[in-house]
Amino acid sequence: MKCQKAEATTRGRFYTAWFTTEIPVSTGPWKLHGLPGLILEAYDNKGAVTFQFESLRMPAPSGTIIDVPARTPGKKILTEKTFWERHKENNSRFDKMASSQPGMEGSQIKTEVKGIEVPPNP
User: Fold this and answer.
1) Of 1, 9, 42, 84, which sits with the fewest C-beta atoms within 10 Å of its C-beta?
2) In a domain, 88, yes or no
């Protein structure tokens, strides 16, 4: 599969992640999820942490039921612009929270994704 590379520093480690948009599922290791495709491999620059995707079965086994979440009355569907605004706000709140953790006092934490297509300016 064709993969793209993303690099980021999170929780004190510099990670390289390889993901594919050919599997349009935004998931992967809990601390690295959120890329626009499935993360197939990720590792830190010191070789202390490595994640490797193990398997995928397609199509789903016969009889698999996928529940579509019911739309809650009174709730709005987010526009792409609103989604990216909230995403930016959430990253900012996370950065502030992470900077205030014991041992991180005075640290400047900036959540940033490098090396992949960035969202459009809302």
Assistant:
1) 1
2) yes
Query: pLDDT digit string (tens) for 90-107?
Result: 878 877 777 777 766 666
Q: Which two tokens stand for residue 86?
A: 């909230």
Examine the domain organization and report whether 51 and 81 are in the same domain. no
User: Is the model's pTM score more than 0.70?
Assistant: no
Range of the domain at 23: 1-55
CB 46 within 8 A of CB 66: no
Domain total in the chain:
2
